[in-house]
Every structure is written in C-alpha cells, then in structure tokens.
Amino acid sequence: MVGGCYYLHVHPDLGLVQARKGDKELTLLGYIIDPEHPKYSDEEVLDELISKISDRLSLFKATMPFGGRWILFYSDGVDVIAFNDACGLRSLYFTRSEIKQFTCGSQPGLINRQLNFHYSESARRDFLDTPVYREKMEYWMPSGRSLYDEIEQLIPNHYLDLNNGVQRRFWPWERLEKVSYRDGVTKVGDLLEKLIIAAAERFRLAVTVTAGYDTRSIFAATRKVSPDVYYYTMLYYNLTHQSPDVDIPHKILASCGIKHHILDCSGQMSNDFREIYMNNVDLAHEAWGHIASGLIHTFPHDHISVKGVCSEIARFTSSRFGYLDTMDGKTLASLFALDDSPFIVEGFDQWAQNSMMWINKYKYRFLDVLYWEHRLGNWQAQSQLEWDIVHETFSPYNCRELLVLLLGVDGRYRKKPGNRLMIALMKYLWPAASQEPFNPRPMKVRFRKKFRLYWRSEKVKKIREIVKNLFDLP
What is the pLDDT of residues 33-47, one digit of tens each? Predict the structure, then answer.
C-alpha cells in the first residue's frame, strides 16, 4: 500500500521498493540512479533519501542529480503525492479530481479497462479524425492530455496530489544560473559519465550509436565502461548499411577496436505481434511496432537500452523556433506542425496559462521548457512506454541537474549546425566520438528542412496567411 490507503498493483517486471522513517514513507516504481553512489541499489538510494528529507520541497531538491526512469510516491502521514523522473519517461496517468473512484496507472488504457470510459468527442473529432493523427507516423499530443475527458497525464516537473487528484508544478524553484562554456563541458561531462558508470553497476548496457550528436555524446561518456558495453545501431525505415547513421558509427567503433552490432528492424510485424502491440498501449504507433518486432528477435534481452534522448535541450530549442510575439495554444501547436485542432490547441493553451508566469519568473526560456515538458514528456515518454514490451530503457540525460546545467550555458554554444558544446563534450570524454561528420545530409535535404522551419516561424506569418488564402490551403 501507499500512504496507508492506496493499493498498488505492479507488473512483476517493474521494480518496487519502499522505505519508511517515522511518519514519512517513500515508494519507488521503476529504478533510480544516484551518480554520487554508483554501487547503491534502489533500496539504498531510498534509505538515504528518506533520512535527509524534511518535506516535499526538500524531496524534490534531493532528487535533482538522480537519473533513471521512475515514479516516487511520498507520504508524510497526511498528504500523499507522486512525481516522476525529470522528463516524465516513467509516465503516470490518473483520473480527474471530480471522478470519485481515483485511479492512476502507467497509461490510460489500463485505467479505462477498469472504469469503462469512452473517447471524448473532442478527441475523436479534433485529433483522431485529423491528418495530425491519420497521416503522421509519429503522432503525439500535448502533455497532460489523454483521449478520455476523465483521465489526465502527469506533466514533467509537476506532482500529483493523490488526495484530491490535482497536479501542480513544483519546478523551477529558483532562478536559472548562468554556466560558462568551460564549466558546462566539464560539469555536464563529469555528471554524464557518473550516471553511466552507476547504471553499469546495475545493468548490462546496450548503447545505441548513430551519426547524431545525442548518441555519440553518450558513446563518449561510456569510455570507462566500454569493454562491457554492447554497441549497436538499428536498421529501420529507409536506412541501409551505407546510410550515415549506420556507416559513421561503424567507422568510429572500428577506430576504437570495438565491435559494432547492426540490428535489422526493417521488417513488418506479424499479425499476432501486431494485435498484441497495438492493443497494449493507447495510441500505439504502427511504425514503432515494426521496429519493436525486429528488436524482439535481435536485441540482447539481458541488457538495458541506453539512448541519447533528452539531450535535445542542449540544442538551444529557442533558436530553432525563432522569435515569437505570441504564446497562445495555436502558435505553440504550429511550432510542432500539430495543426490547429481545438483538442491540440486547448492542451497547449492550458499549459501556457499555468506555466508562463512561473517559467518567466525564474528566467528560463519558455520554448526550452515547452520542448522539455511536451516533446520529451509525451512523444518520447510514449515511445519508451510502447517499447517496454521489448526492453527497459535508460536515458542518461534524463536528469534534472544535467538539464539545468545545459540550459545555463549560453545558447550560442548550443546552436546547430556545429553544436560547440556537444562537440567539446565529446572531446572531453572520448575524442574518437567527434572524429566523423555529424548527420551529413545532401544539400537539397538540408535546404528543405531549413525552409520548413523558416516557413513555420513568426517572421513570415503574414506571408504564410496570404499564400494560404490565395491558394485556399488548409
């Protein structure tokens, strides 16, 4: 039980640990990594954590350096709250406050099987019946939403009060401190390396490597544990052995004398697997299911998958979107090409109204936090939720202290192309990671991508409206 009054039903593959001291109780679902104590088990992390906290704020602050993929329930004898890892990759959904039978779970489909809700009319009309869902392989929606009016998602950097079924923001709680370029490289590099060393004490690591900045920075941070790491690249969608995402990591690993495993995930799901996969999680992605089907047969199942996701914060998201003179839901939806359906716009509007003042107060860039809490908190969290059917996942950048350090570094060092911070980070940890080009693409592909980003920006909003009206475009 949690807090003496909430029952837990836990899958046997999901870690469950509890610690108690006086009136205080901590319950962990998943796994938690303490970079300062690499040999600590989940039990030891919780025992030390509960011994040094006095209230919920001290708990939030104490978990700043922690990595992993987890949900923590905290009870002080009166209140019971829950919050999850920095980017919400261990997702939590719950019934709204007006629903008498409070229930929470890892995904809304599980809750619905017990309480028999129905998709909301808005979700059907303004999401499921739109091109945003029907025509996109990797569709997603704003964090906080579900297809049911009665069920919400816990947004990253928020906690859930179980006694009244309401979520509230708890981070940021202090102003963003500026971090020098040099300190950014060393502090981020040292913490990243510690997180991976601690994870290697717990699990056998399988690290994905591509031609991009994210995975190669993770590869660089594995230098001290590299003899025990399984390095791999997946073949999926239209990738071949000659594609940069396969050829470049092969060259890097060969130069280090490391074996490169190429996992063929380019096939199609069988009918039997499709039925299981698509019904396992609400809004499951068929495209991701094909990849998962390949991983079932090729991924080493005694390993945990290590990904470079969440490091997108280091790319200076604000520069990607450019200057915005408005921050309404319609504008925010357009940044991610999510259409202007009322279902999507309402989700962004609610978030902006509840978050803008708080984020500005503590001097964070609004668009960086937007990307953190929505793109990572929904799209990436959904990806990991779906692939739980194949393997557990560890994302070293999924650490609040690490992300705050990255956000503190001046944006000019985090801009693409030529992300100076990430390249310097690789050179600091393992120079071999930076020896090959990053994401090389033909000129026409690069031009097309830049044009799309420019066309969506506020700079050409009036021109965009003229063209849409002139040619009667959606």
Answer: 999 999 999 999 999
